[in-house]
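Review form for a predicted model. The reviewer records the input and the model, then writes brief findings.
Reviewer: anonymous (R2)
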Amino acid sequence: MTMTSKERVIAAFEFTEPDRVPVWLGASPEFREKAREFLGLPDADESLSCHLGDDFRRVFARYAGPAARDPLLDLRYPGATYRTPFGVERHGYGYGQPLHHPLAAARTVADIEKYEWPEPDWMDVSYIRGEAESWQGQYAILGGDWSPFFHDAIDLVGMERLLVDFYEAPIVAEALLAHVADYYIGTSRRIFQSAGDVIDIFFVGNDFGAQAGPIIGGQVFRRFLLPQLKRFVDLGHEYDQKVMLHSDGSLYDLIPLFLEIGLDGIQSVQPSSYKMEPSRLKQAYGDRLAFMGCIDTQFVLISGTPASVREQVREVLEVMKPGGGFVASPSHDYLLEETPVQNVIAMYDAIKEFGRYR
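Model under review:
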């Protein structure tokens, strides 16, 4: 029996075998436009998603707050291309890198408290229900704020300062992370109060992994980052949603902590990172944590051929497919423009070919 995309995804997250392995397309606007031109499609959004068989759709809140904190207006730093909700201006590809750290000199909890923190009601959530309902229940809907609380804390004080504060000023570091998370929790709660029953997966993003291991591990992660991450998991579960964390890099040593707080899935599994081989993940955690990704973007999709891409997809599906719990996608949530379109098409064609259960 052929399932809807939503049924297929939910089955996978419940660790049962759907009709075929679900797929997700995460891609930059530049890649989407290149793919649209290559395929001769009328648009780079819905037409491309339909053509490649994407089982997901995503809804976002839009900024509607004061102009002085608008993401794109009246940027003050030379070269700035984006402003975060916390007033940090950035430069570079995508969201870029911070040009300043406005709380770098904060040394007390009072310094943290007096900062001009953003308000959740700066985000317009009024249209999200209508947008999600426009797909008529056919797709799995990703929603909630992206919520990169770890990265925004780094932006506000600087990476070195935050790492030092974990040891020398722990209550200051805790206050900083809590305030950042408060904003995102408040924003997502507003989204879910408006449209939580038509959103299936709360999708949050924080890169906790580097190529060779977690950026922050052990007891430091448990004390400072895990409590905030648990707040997001609890919020999603409050609205009967699965909660999926985006993180690149090596996360294997953090997975027991993720399971401890009830996280449902990890997106962007990067198989070339340390201890992130699909076979290791499937054997150890494949019946408790859903995995999305595993099709290598660092090497295979960038520099391979359609034939080598097809072979990797076959190998990955052979390992990850049994018992559900897997969504096939590139090992990054944002295919870059330099990725060959032919390789991406070969990937999705191979998933269709090898991904059927029965």
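Findings: The first strand starts at residue 56 and ends at 58.
Further findings: The two ends are 9 Å apart (CA to CA).
Recommendation: see findings above.
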